[in-house]
């Protein structure tokens, strides 16, 4: 196979539609007779429901129906446990999943109480005020530490406490490691992640076709196949009666894979009740409560190190806020627990976490999915150790990197894919070297920083390392089909939210089948076009679906060559497949076009050999044995204003290794976007709840997403260590940009403001100008 | 409700439309759901994200912060009108494609409208000026870098194309 497109910065097939306003997004679905839905949501975080009276709403002209939990009858049931707890000895896990409409109790602000169906969204929202709700307000669990008090209110009355889960995992013997250590440092770390806030909110459109007994659901989901299977079961339909379409989705970043959101459950049912299409589009205020968050953990962590900076062991005990329900199981805290290791040799590890139910919106993975929290703890511990031992921060990292000869490297504890954590491949030191070189580390410390400091400027540098477990199973599939017009159609079951699948998958196909990238049409996220699959999450689309696409294309290639070989009565070795046609080597005028071969593979008359499959097509599946581990280093130089704490990033470098790269242009875009979200998380975005569980900054005017003024130009570089776990050698890259930005900020800001000498340590994320003001105030006041 | 109905007459991308609208109908909803020009996207409905930006008599406005009736008698431009009828992309669209300035594409129409107006006013912007002009449009996917590069390239292409 001659590579022409794989690895090249091919421009995207999907751009034209999106640039000309022709992409179909969920709110663009217009159907005759469509009704519009609005949800009445709880305005308090914790309350017992005494009465909901919707009779006034029903009298409003234009209102068609109002439903509460009682109206749903047997259809009302808690959602599925999406991810069961991994097989870890001694694990405690209390599954409490979200419900379609609240019954008896509301457990977070924004939980839906009733749903209104009307001729327009305007009328539906008018009618929200017509519903009389009588609630007995209860004290709310907001703080995860207080939530574990014996006297704390209970989020779930039937549980003896607010403990959602308790998990301990160990590697080696930490006690022994600590006994031999030259230095043990212990600190408390707080890390909060925020909301994904894609520019397109969520939405659902459902259309029941009573005559055809067919349900069609348009859904902004990252996992259309799971949504189809689950909703078919709930609605009492066969999977073949339900079609779920994830159209162009305006950003996902994790929360759009949660299921089932109450709205996903309610709308198809309403459409069946009323026999009319119904639409619900989340507004931005709803998005702050009704879409899942990621939020916070508190870590009490200690590191045992030798005098030369070598890590001997880490002990970590942490609390994890899981919100009012835990449908996504333990994915987020397990990721934190496993990713804390980073690229380092950690001989002994003792990690215990307790997940706590709170009266806050549900926590599920958001880009990074808990990895940030673990990486922050490890990177900060190393910084503290480096300071105590008078070792350069970059040097202490280098001394602890897993050597290139040690792969596959076993970390033993169980990862989110239920497999023992094992790094498949890696070569970490060159990544660190390149990052230090690109940021100008040595020169900055030796010349630049002293010179700028002499001018009264507050500049600092940071370096942070991370690994990312990517590309986990179970599997994905793809169907590749050459059409009579010579164009190639590819269908796969994953959803797409901007990752460039229409192009990267096309590149794989184009090389296998000798066609141009623009001759390959990719279909994602339509369950009628591809039946099986899992979804787009855990940086796995390119790895898992990409390899399935490659496998199916390879089979189609073989079929095409065999057919042409029979036709030309020659060996397949004498054939060349390029330019959309098969020709005989050295005799380019002797050729047949792929489209014509496809027609010949579907003869109208005559006999075929037994076992012949018609058409030039193949459906293949790929499931990796375990996840592939990518790694990287970010480095940054910042300048701070010591009065206002305004921050300016002077230089930002990312060096990354995600195995073989399909499209470096698309990869760079993924990194840029990840870093931007990491910057938001580190310094601008904070969900501010009061002690009643009210979110105080639920608007984009108050919750600050980074703009073009906050996100700097980034310099990117790569090394390539292919994964041995898939034929293409790919590792995932979707989340990497976002993962190490928090510790990078903490380290660089400490350096810029020389906080070590003020005895101020930055042990929390997000930071902000006002938080820096608070943290340094005690140091400033004598 | 029936009494609260106004005639709205306006032109979008050179085509005249006349429709009835309630006084409270947002211009964004009117464009998307009454005129079925769904290329204009709605991101926040409180004037922050910029996704719904359209041009009103050539100047960028947030269509979620205007009522349809306020656009009565005005000329609007939306993303659907940027490319030529033959399908040739506007230089700003072409540059976004060339520089991978879009990922999910949801914020893109608002960015295209904001920046075409900006580049008409400032034909030779610096990177800082581009970032300043872009800062009223939120993008959650790209980290802006490729959009900035696209705008600098578009400005250059548009200068080169001028006689």
Say what oligomer this is: heterodimer
**Which CATH-level-2 architecture of the largest domain in chain B?**
Roll
Give the CATH H-level superfamily of the largest domain in chain B.
Answer: Beta-grasp domain
Number of helices of chain B: 5
Termini separation of chain A comes to 71 Å
Strand percent estimate of chain A: 25-35%
Any idea of the CATH class of the largest domain in chain B? Alpha Beta
CATH topology of one domain in chain A: Aldehyde Oxidoreductase, domain 4
Spans of chain B of 5+ residues with little confidence (pLDDT < 50)? none
| Mean model confidence by pLDDT of chain B | 96
Tally of separate domains of chain B: 2
Lay out the secondary structure.
The complex is a heterodimer of chains A (782) and B (163).
Chain A: H1 15-19, E1 35-41, E2 47-53, H2 55-59, E3 63-68, E4 92-93, E5 105-106, E6 112-118, H3 121-128, E7 132-137, E8 163-171, H4 174-179, E9 183-193, E10 203-209, E11 214-219, H5 224-235, E12 242-245, H6 262-274, E13 278-281, H7 284-290, E14 295-305, E15 311-323, H8 331-339, E16 349-357, H9 371-389, H10 393-400, E17 409-414, E18 420-423, H11 428-439, H12 441-454, E19 458-470, E20 476-482, E21 488-492, H13 501-513, E22 520-524, H14 541-568, E23 575-578, E24 581-584, E25 587-593, H15 594-600, E26 616-622, E27 628-640, E28 647-657, H16 664-684, E29 715-718, H17 741-752, E30 764-765, H18 769-780
Parallel strand pairs in A: 1-13, 9-30, 11-12, 15-16, 21-22, 28-29
Antiparallel strand pairs in A: 1-6, 2-5, 2-7, 3-6, 4-8, 8-16, 9-14, 10-11, 10-13, 14-15, 17-18, 19-27, 20-21, 20-26, 23-24, 24-25, 27-28
Helix pairs in contact in A: 5-6, 8-9, 9-10, 9-17, 13-14, 16-17
Chain B: E1 6-12, E2 15-21, H1 27-34, E3 53-56, E4 59-62, E5 75-77, H2 91-98, H3 108-121, H4 127-134, H5 145-161
Parallel strand pairs in B: 1-5
Antiparallel strand pairs in B: 1-2, 3-4, 3-5
Helix pairs in contact in B: 2-5, 4-5
């Amino acid at each position: 196979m001659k590579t022409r497109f794989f690895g090249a910065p091919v421009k995207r097939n999907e751009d034209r539609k999106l640039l000309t306003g022709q992409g179909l997004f969920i709110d663009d679905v217009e159907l005759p007779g469509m009704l519009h839905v609005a949800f009445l949501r709880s305005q308090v975080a914790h309350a017992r429901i005494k009465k909901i009276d919707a009779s006034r709403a029903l009298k409003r002209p234009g209102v068609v129906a109002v439903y509460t939990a009682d109206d749903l009858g047997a259809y009302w049931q808690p959602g599925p446990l999406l991810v069961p707890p991994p097989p870890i000895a001694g694990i405690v896990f209390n599954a409490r999943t979200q419900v379609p409409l609240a019954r008896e109790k509301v457990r977070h602000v924004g939980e839906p109480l009733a749903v209104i169906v009307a001729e327009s969204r305007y009328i539906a929202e008018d009618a929200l005020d017509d519903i009389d709700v009588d609630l007995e307000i209860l004290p709310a669990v907001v703080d995860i530490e207080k939530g574990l008090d014996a006297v704390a209110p209970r989020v779930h009355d039937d549980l003896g406490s607010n403990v959602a889960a308790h998990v301990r995992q160990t590697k080696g013997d930490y006690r022994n490691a600590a006994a031999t250590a030259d230095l043990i440092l212990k600190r408390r770390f707080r890390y909060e992640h925020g909301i994904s806030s894609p520019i397109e909110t969520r939405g659902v459109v459902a259309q029941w076709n009573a005559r055809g007994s067919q349900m069609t659901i348009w859904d902004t989901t990252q996992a259309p196949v799971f949504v189809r299977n689950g909703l078919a079961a709930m609605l009492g339909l066969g999977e073949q009666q339900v079609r779920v379409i994830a159209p162009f989705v305006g950003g996902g970043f994790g929360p759009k894979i949660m299921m089932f959101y109450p709205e996903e459950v309610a709308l198809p049912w309403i459409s069946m009740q009323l026999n009319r299409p119904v639409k619900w589009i989340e507004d931005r205020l709803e998005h702050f409560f009704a879409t899942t968050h990621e939020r916070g953990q508190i870590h009490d962590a200690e590191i045992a190190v030798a005098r030369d900076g070598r890590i001997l062991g880490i002990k970590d005990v942490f609390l994890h806020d899981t919100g009012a329900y835990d449908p996504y199981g333990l994915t987020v805290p397990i990721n934190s627990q496993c990713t804390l290791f980073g690229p380092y040799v950690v001989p002994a590890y003792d990690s215990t976490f307790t997940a706590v139910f709170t009266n806050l919106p549900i926590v599920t993975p958001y880009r990074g999915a808990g990895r940030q929290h673990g990486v922050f703890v490890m990177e900060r511990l190393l910084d503290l150790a480096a300071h105590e031992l008078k070792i350069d921060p970059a040097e202490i990292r280098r001394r602890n990197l897993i050597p290139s000869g040690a792969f596959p490297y076993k970390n033993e504890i169980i990862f989110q894919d239920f497999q023992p954590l094992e790094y498949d491949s890696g070569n970490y030191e060159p990544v660190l070297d390149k990052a230090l070189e690109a940021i100008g580390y040595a020169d900055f410390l030796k010349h630049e920083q002293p010179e700028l400091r002499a001018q009264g400027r507050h500049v600092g540098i940071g370096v942070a390392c991370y690994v990312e477990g990517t590309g986990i199973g179970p599997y994905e599939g793809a169907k590749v089909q050459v059409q009579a017009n010579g164009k190639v159609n590819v269908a796969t079951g994953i959803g797409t939210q901007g990752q460039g699948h229409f192009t990267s998958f096309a590149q794989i196909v184009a090389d296998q089948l000798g066609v141009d990238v623009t001759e390959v049409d990719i279909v994602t996220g339509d369950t009628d076009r591809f039946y099986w699959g899992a979804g787009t999450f855990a940086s796995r689309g390119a790895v898992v679906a990409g390899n399935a696409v490659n496998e199916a294309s390879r089979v189609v290639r073989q079929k095409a060559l065999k057919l042409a070989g029979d036709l030309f009565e020659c060996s397949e070795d004498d054939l060349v497949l390029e330019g959309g046609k098969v020709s005989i080597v050295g005799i380019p005028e002797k050729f047949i076009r792929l489209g014509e071969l496809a027609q010949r593979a579907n003869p109208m008359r005559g006999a075929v050999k037994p076992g012949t499959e018609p058409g030039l097509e193949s459906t293949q599946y790929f499931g990796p044995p375990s996840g592939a581990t990518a790694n990287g280093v970010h480095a940054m130089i910042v300048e701070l204003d010591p009065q206002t704490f305004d921050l300016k990033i002077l230089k930002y470098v990312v060096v990354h290794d995600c195995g073989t790269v399909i499209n470096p242009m698309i990869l760079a875009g993924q990194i840029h976007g990840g870093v931007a979200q990491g910057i938001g998380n580190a310094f601008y975005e904070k969900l501010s709840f009061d002690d009643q569980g009210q979110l105080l900054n639920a608007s984009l005017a108050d919750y600050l997403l980074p703009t073009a003024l906050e996100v700097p130009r980034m310099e990117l570089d790569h090394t390539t260590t292919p994964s041995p776990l898939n034929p293409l050698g790919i590792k995932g890259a979707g989340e990497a940009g976002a993962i190490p930005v928090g510790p990078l900020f903490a380290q660089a800001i400490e350096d810029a403001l020389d906080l070590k000498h003020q005895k101020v340590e930055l042990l929390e994320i997000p930071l902000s100008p006002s938080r820096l003001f608070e943290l340094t105030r005690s140091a400033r006041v004598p | 409700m029936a009494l609260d109905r106004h005639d709205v007459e306006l032109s979008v991308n050179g085509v005249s439309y006349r429709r009835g609208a309630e006084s409270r109908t947002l211009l964004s909803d009117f464009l998307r759901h009454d005129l079925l020009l769904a290329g204009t996207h709605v991101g926040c409905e409180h004037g922050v994200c910029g996704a719904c930006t359209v041009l009103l008599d050539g100047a960028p406005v947030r269509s979620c912060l205007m009522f349809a009736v306020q656009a009565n008698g005005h000329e609007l431009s939306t993303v659907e009108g940027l490319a030529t009828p033959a399908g040739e992309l506007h230089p700003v669209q072409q540059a976004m494609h060339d520089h991978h300035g879009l990922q999910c594409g949801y914020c893109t129409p608002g960015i295209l409208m904001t920046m075409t107006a900006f580049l008409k006013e400032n034909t030779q912007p610096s990177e800082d000026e581009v970032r300043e002009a872009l800062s009223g449009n939120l993008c959650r996917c790209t980290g802006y870098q490729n959009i900035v590069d696209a705008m600098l390239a578009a400005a250059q292409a548009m200068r080169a194309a001028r006689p």
